[in-house]
Design a protein that fits this description.
89 residues; 74% helix; mainly alpha; 2 helices; two-stranded antiparallel sheet; elongated; single chain
């Protein structure tokens, strides 16, 4: 049994083998995943730091710039990881 994907390209629909479509788009998907890793790292650093600052903010008031600085540091960690990753390749 052969799985086919019906697509319309210009002059009419064609049947493409589904395996060929998956193999053809895999590099694009892996590039998107590789690009998303630093972003996920930066967001997770921000979320973790915000979670750790929650109990601290109950003990003492925090300046309103703390959240902005936390986001900047989280994004800087993500960018630093991306540059490290690109240099290793």
């Amino acid at each position: 049994m052969r799985l086919l994907l019906r697509v319309g390209l210009g002059d009419g629909p064609r049947d493409l083998p589904l395996g060929g479509v998956v193999v053809g788009t895999a590099p694009a998907a892996s590039a998107a995943v590789a690009a998303g890793v630093p972003l996920l790292l930066g967001i997770s650093a921000f979320v973790a730091t915000t979670g750790l600052l929650g109990p601290v903010s109950q003990l003492a008031p925090l300046h309103e710039a703390v959240q902005i600085v936390t986001m900047l540091i989280g994004l800087a960690v993500g960018v630093d990881y991306a540059m490290f990753y690109l240099r290793r390749m």
